[in-house]
Amino acid sequence: MRRRTTISGVACLLLALGLAGCNEKQQAPAAARAVTVTKAKSAQYQPSVEISGSVKARVQSDLSFRTAGRVIERRVDIGDRVKAGDVLAKLDDTEQRADVTVSRAGLASAEATMRQKTLAFERYKTLIQSNTVAQSTFDQAREDLANAQGSLQTAQANLATSLDALTYTELKADADGIITSRSIEVGQVVSAAQAAVTLAHDGPRDAVFDMFEAFFLEGAPSDAVEVAPIIDRAHPKTGKIREVSPAIDTGAGTIRIKVGLPADTDWALNTSVTGRFHSQQQQGITLPWSAMTSDSGKPAVWAVDPASSKVSLRKVNVARYHVGDFVVTDGVKPDDLVVIEGGKFLTDGQVVAFKEQ
């Protein structure tokens, strides 16, 4: 009986020691997870957007006839280069030439009457001095001369008007440039002031863009714009915003912007170009993509408390997403430690061993 008691006591002692060992293993603290952090730094960022547009002449004029008529000749087509004063098209001028003929005949008659009345007045002027004719006769001669002078002036004005109307049948270029569009054909009857051709004047060029309205919500863009042909983006030029349309295209929701190009720009009219527009500089915190995580589907980052080495999940407000980073404007402050490596399996309040990059 004494031997059995001794064996039982030894077994109990070993069992107690084993349980104590297991309990010590369960209570041993877990090793802290190693993470890499970066110190958040405040920086300025400048949102930008790239859209397509085309090169246009700074000055374009829609040329039209100043009188109605039938087109009998069209001398230019789209793409033709013209000089100031060149005749671009002509109307049937039969009626205008007839008016000129009538006006010239009227002027000849008025001049003949004027010569006759002048001779009569001079004769009566001599006779009145010798009291050979009555005063009333002289007065009538003077009145007839005045009427003849008025008729002559009217005839001269009528001829000038007829000649001017004759010039209305010719459409002439008002400057050196290139024809960019036309809307008339030979045989077509046009009305006065109806657009016939569009002339792009030689000289400064603009890059014209239709910018979506939302880009202006953060304020007016920066004046400097990087412009480059779509087929040659390696050689951009820096232009300056010259004009922003005050009206919005309600159909497309865009605002037209004209960017003045440098004087040495040799791009052809209607060249397709891209323009990179920059909004005004703003303040934020830029973090690498590896810092991004999620909290219930919302952007978040892990932040480390340097005093306790514990992590906490913070929701952030992302202002801009870039290729290699993103910009935060809320949720993180300058000098906060943000986890950029090792944050996949962290839990809120977990102690970590961190090193700063």
From TrEMBL:
<feature type="domain" description="Multidrug resistance protein MdtA-like C-terminal permuted SH3">
    <location>
        <begin position="285"/>
        <end position="344"/>
    </location>
</feature>
<dbReference type="InterPro" id="IPR058627">
    <property type="entry name" value="MdtA-like_C"/>
</dbReference>
<feature type="signal peptide">
    <location>
        <begin position="1"/>
        <end position="22"/>
    </location>
</feature>
<keyword id="KW-0813">Transport</keyword>
<dbReference type="InterPro" id="IPR058625">
    <property type="entry name" value="MdtA-like_BSH"/>
</dbReference>
<protein>
    <submittedName>
        <fullName>Efflux transporter periplasmic adaptor subunit</fullName>
    </submittedName>
</protein>
<dbReference type="InterPro" id="IPR006143">
    <property type="entry name" value="RND_pump_MFP"/>
</dbReference>
<keyword id="KW-0732">Signal</keyword>
<dbReference type="Pfam" id="PF25967">
    <property type="entry name" value="RND-MFP_C"/>
</dbReference>
<dbReference type="GO" id="GO:1990281">
    <property type="term" value="C:efflux pump complex"/>
</dbReference>
<dbReference type="Pfam" id="PF25876">
    <property type="entry name" value="HH_MFP_RND"/>
</dbReference>
<dbReference type="GO" id="GO:0015562">
    <property type="term" value="F:efflux transmembrane transporter activity"/>
</dbReference>
<dbReference type="Pfam" id="PF25917">
    <property type="entry name" value="BSH_RND"/>
</dbReference>
<comment type="similarity">
    <text>Belongs to the membrane fusion protein (MFP) (TC 8.A.1) family.</text>
</comment>
<feature type="domain" description="Multidrug resistance protein MdtA-like barrel-sandwich hybrid">
    <location>
        <begin position="66"/>
        <end position="197"/>
    </location>
</feature>
<dbReference type="InterPro" id="IPR058624">
    <property type="entry name" value="MdtA-like_HH"/>
</dbReference>
<feature type="domain" description="Multidrug resistance protein MdtA-like alpha-helical hairpin">
    <location>
        <begin position="102"/>
        <end position="169"/>
    </location>
</feature>
